[in-house]
Design brief:
The chain has two helices and no strands. With 108 residues, it is mainly α.
């Protein structure tokens, strides 16, 4: 199968179309990558402009739960504190001065 001059004429005319297709095939990967990068940048910019809602604060709920548990166990703790032999109510003595708050010393 030999190539005749008439065949060469049609091949040369089609050569520009073939070269465009081949260059597009080679550049397709780079084009897809640049499109993906542009869409990612656009998405990030949109997220930056958007106001985000704060997540529910579970820590405060946990603290409230702990406080309620402590309130339930408060009676048990008071009993434990009263059973402590190192603290006797007889050792604690409160001394008050009867003149405190009645006289003002201006000579000072």
């Amino acid at each position: 199968m030999s190539i005749k001059p008439i065949d060469l004429q049609t091949l040369f005319v089609k050569m520009s179309e073939v070269s465009k297709e081949q260059s597009l095939v080679k550049e397709q990967a780079a084009l897809q990558q640049s499109r993906a990068a542009r869409s990612q940048v656009a998405k990030e910019l949109a997220e930056d402009r958007k106001v985000t809602e704060t997540p529910a604060d579970n820590e405060t709920q946990a603290v409230k739960d702990d406080e309620s548990e402590e309130a339930k166990e408060g009676g048990k703790r008071k009993k434990d504190e009263n059973d402590d032999p190192t603290e006797d109510s007889s050792e604690l003595e409160v001394v008050t001065d009867p003149d405190v708050g009645r006289h003002i010393d201006l000579s000072g």
